[in-house]
Amino acid sequence: MMDTLKNAYSSIPFAWLCLAVSSVTLVYYLVSELRPPCPVEDDFPTKRRDLFLGSFDFFRDSFKFLLSCREWAQGAHMGFYILSHRVVMVRGLPGRDVFFSKGLDFMAGYRLLNPQLVDVMPVTEIKGDESWASFMATFIRSEVLDKLTPTMVQDMANIVDAWGDKGTVDPFDGVYEIIFALSMRLATCNEFCSDREKVRTMMRIFQRLEDGSTPASIILSWVPTPSRMRRLWAGGELYKMISDVVSARKRENRREDDPLQALIDKGFNLVEITRFIAMTLFAAVTNTGNVFCWFLIYLELHKKWKSSILSEIDAFVETHSSVSRSTSPFSTSTIAEALSRAGPDALEAATPTLDATLHETIRIVFNGFFMRRNIGSALSLDGRRIPHGAFLMFPTADLHFDPALFPDPHAFEPARFTPAAMEARRAEHGIAFLGWGAARHQCVGKRAALVMMKMITVMLLARFDMGVVDGRGRTLVEVPKPRQDTLFKVSPTLTRTLLTYEVRRDA
Ligand code: HEM
After folding, report:
1. 150-208 pLDDT, tens per residue?
2. What is the mean pLDDT of the chain?
3. What's the number of CA atoms in the CB half-sphere (13 Å) around residue 262?
4. Which domains does the chain have, with CATH numbers?
5. From ligand 1's centre to the CA of 321, what distance in Å?
6. Which of 210, 229, 138 is nearest to 487 (CA)?
7. Residues having CB within 6 Å of any atom of ligand 1
8. Residue 193 marked as a ligand binder
9. Residue 71 and residue 307: Cα distance in Å, rounded?
10. What is the end-to-end Cα distance of the chain in Å, rounded?
11. Whose CA is nearest to atom 1 of ligand 1?
């Protein structure tokens, strides 16, 4: 009893201390957030501004809020606030022209909504003045992809072999794992990639890194909330895994031919290496994983396109392997042999329909918002002024679903992406497709992403008859709704959607 009282008394000063620290923190926060917001010398219609938070609804459900902004302004440019920061959502073709002009900063834009990006990547420049995007590009240039192809193909064959001859797989887990494993070859080290358990561990670490960055964490980005702690912990685990490999290489005086070795040779320390690997894997997997899962779903619901793709794929495997489809079904090793022998260039040349279908999938599912910050002088848009310091947002849907650019925009029509159709659209309208970005910040991983997605398509479709069912095993008859709860990333389906597969018997 005495002990309990003593503990209670001794905890009172501590409680006071906590209260004092919290009060000072709160006052500091309110004062700093209530300072005059970044210049608002614009007169764009503004969605209601709530005290302190700017737009309370943004923190409740950011994606829904942004969609509601899009609807609210009925196609016109509009503004809102995130905390004290002015954000202008620019619309349509005039908005596009301003958004992709010079003077807008890419990283500063995204950092507003993900201040914890700083945990992963506090610098936009790698040593000297080389940007991280151009440095990353050296890891995925054509010669590297060519050289890595046989290894990546083998990694993929191992995972697909483990699926067996028949079964059901959640694409946003099982197929995503293949993309993740192949992306790891582009960003990490041989020691991780050759061990499937390590690949799964990395997937879990990345899931936690992603889960730790919620819109709510923007409010008090420096407070050690449980989600932020989980994120830091996951970063620590990644650091430990990498540091073990680096130590082993030093101890054994061993070198490898992989991205980690390139980073060590460049003189990076362990923290820099961990950040770089994390950023590269994020860039590689974030979109490729879910885009590709949607592609498989769309394909099963559009059989006409599937059968054209199948013809391309069967012809490709027959041309580049020693097996004819008329004698036996393709095994994973036959398909792997064809992919390795042919290499990325021949694969690309042999699959124009697959290419167009992937692009049409991206047009439809890549339905999000790009972000920038105006770090130059004020910009002018339809006679209004966007001041220095303001953030800009652009909805991809303004182009991807504009009937002038893509007639009957909600229809799935890969023929829009034949080279001739793309050229004609570009000549008439300028930038229309944003799937790989535009102007100064085009995706440096475009080719790697296409090659990975094409290799997996060949492996899965040459090997299996596939189908798509809902969580209760019923064949899907229409495209499922997306979850739409992640900013800047294609989200999975709202309801459980599964792929069925069985070894093809139609030899
Ligand atoms: C289907 C897969 C992918 C899609 C749809 C995609 C899409 C995009 C888009 C739209 C942008 C520009 C964003 C903006 O302007 O705000 C971008 C930038 C970028 N992407 Fe991708 N991407 C994919 C795969 C990859 C892969 C596999 C990598 C790397 C291995 C990668 C690396 C990058 C990098 C580094 C940038 C930033 C470029 C810069 O700062 O200038 N992406 N991507």
Report:
1. 999 999 999 999 999 999 999 999 999 999 999 999 999 999 999 999 999 999 998 88
2. 86
3. 18
4. 120-503 (1.10.630.10)
5. 33
6. 210
7. 106, 133, 136, 140, 186, 283-284, 287-288, 291, 362, 366, 370, 434-437, 441, 443-445, 448-449
8. no
9. 38
10. 82
11. 288
